[in-house]
Batch of 2 targets.
Target 1
Amino acid sequence: MFFKKKITVAGTLVALVVLGIAASAPADPIFKNLKVLPKNTTHEQLDSVMHMFNSSLGVKCGFCHSFENGKPNFPSDAKPEKDIARYMLNMTGEINAKYFNSENSTRPDTISVVKCVTCHHGNPHPADSVAAKPGNMPPPPPPPMPDSAGKVQPQNKK
Ligand code: HEC
Ligand code: HEC
């Protein structure tokens, strides 16, 4: 699937981001399989991130976590939705750091202008909404052309 390949590339700009969890002094990690959230995430922090996921996407825990005989296995990565959520965490963090760091913060990982709910609005499939149908997007701008001196001018300067 599209997201699977990107996950490895999505990289290191890690990023939480959504709640501004600070990477502070290392404590004994409580959770076994955190790859995006800081290893020292507390119970309270994890709980609020997970409930934010539920409400932003309009889903329950089992949308991303596998359940066997009614019992949850939260560290398991068996469900692809969980890895997509990791990819989305990285993506959201990068959007904030790249496009919303107007004050040149030294901690762009704590910026959370764009959140899961910004796109999802309680829907796990925002691409299904009418506004996201192909054809409703303006075409991308043409690539910048070198001037006579062979230099590429920034496009947003008049
Ligand atoms: C949209 C997907 C999604 C939903 C919904 C979701 N989770 Fe998660 N959960 C994740 C991801 C992704 C991670 C791993 C984060 C990472 O790698 O840093 C995770 C990690 C966890 C962990 C840590 C497991 C470990 O030891 O590594 C627990 C516990 C957990 N979730 C509980 C819950 C509960 C309880 C709910 C419902 C209230 C829930 N989650 C809803 C995506 C989700
Ligand atoms: C910039 C917009 C945007 C943001 C921000 C965003 N998403 Fe998404 N997300 C999408 C789009 C678009 C899809 C593809 C939906 C589809 O295929 O129908 C998607 C798909 C997903 C899926 C897969 C759903 C499925 O069933 O295939 C998960 C899980 C998900 N997002 C979780 C999250 C989480 C968690 C966050 C916040 C950390 C987040 N997203 C932030 C736009 C966004």
Note: The chain has one domain: 2-132.
Target 2
Amino acid sequence: MEHSLENIKPLIRCPVCQKKYEPGKVVLLSEDDRKTALHLTCEACGISSLVFVSLGKMGAVSFGMLTDLEREEVKEFYGSEAVSADDALEVHRFLKDFRGGIGECLS
Ligand SMILES: [Zn+2]
């Protein structure tokens, strides 16, 4: 099964106001067969968030997390090289700690 941004787009919503994101506002950070990491900026509430989408037996699951990082900063953070899902998880953990455990939101 092909896994692309098109397939997961319907899953991507703002963790705060639940508004669907405009495709143009989504920055793809990393992608592999099962996991995708995205940075989003909500037009409605202005909140930036990181969204991780993973594909499992139960289908696609999305996990949204608020972030203070702007999209350019995130790109820098991730660098220009391809990032593995493990790396994305590390970033996830780092940001979680960085935020002191707040700003986490399950969608
Ligand atoms: Zn929003």
Note: The longest strand covers residues 48-56.
